[in-house]
Amino acid sequence: MLVLLFCLAINVKGADYERTKDFFYGRKHEVALTMDVITPAKQNNRGVIFAVSGGWFSSHDNIDKVIDLGTFLELLKRRCTTVFAVVHGSQSKFTVPEIREDMHRGGSFIRHHAELYKIDPANIGMLWGSAGGHLTLLQGTDGQGGDPSAEGPVDRESSAVQAIVLYFPPTDFLNYRKEGQHFDNLVRQVMFGRNPFLVALD
Known about the structure:
Helix content is 33%, strand content 24%. The chain has 8 helices and 7 strands; from the N terminus they run H-E-E-E-E-H-H-E-H-H-E-H-E-H-H. A hairpin with a 2-residue loop joins strand 2 (17-28) and strand 3.
């Protein structure tokens, strides 16, 4: 079944990379969890996870926007690094702890299939900013060791990453930007009384 899913993935070639869309890395509530794999023309056996997240909302459209901005070009061209764009379950249906489990699953899946992707399983990084930076920080400081007694081979793999790069991540929601300022209060001030992110964090 896994081989069939790999075969059904869509290949998109750019000038210096090949993008394979919709690799199936897990299932949650009967919904497929997928990621895109962006492979440079030349590989250096390094892999980086891109936490596809904005406001803890994740969509394949976000991958397109980041590629259009050229965000990965340095990684792909100069560093020859394979990028794994992991799409997670989104708020408001899922909370941050549930979203973290998706990212851990993605990391374990990538490590388990390191040979397929031609990367070193002992040298995997992770990056992104804002909510994606928050998830990157969480995974970088609290990667999960695999469960050796798990039935599935992916679940026996660690989700830990060896390097992280994060841009403007929220880190303290109780003292957001200044001492004693709650994240929810500040967001409501600047968004006319709304906080579309609160469900993920509540």
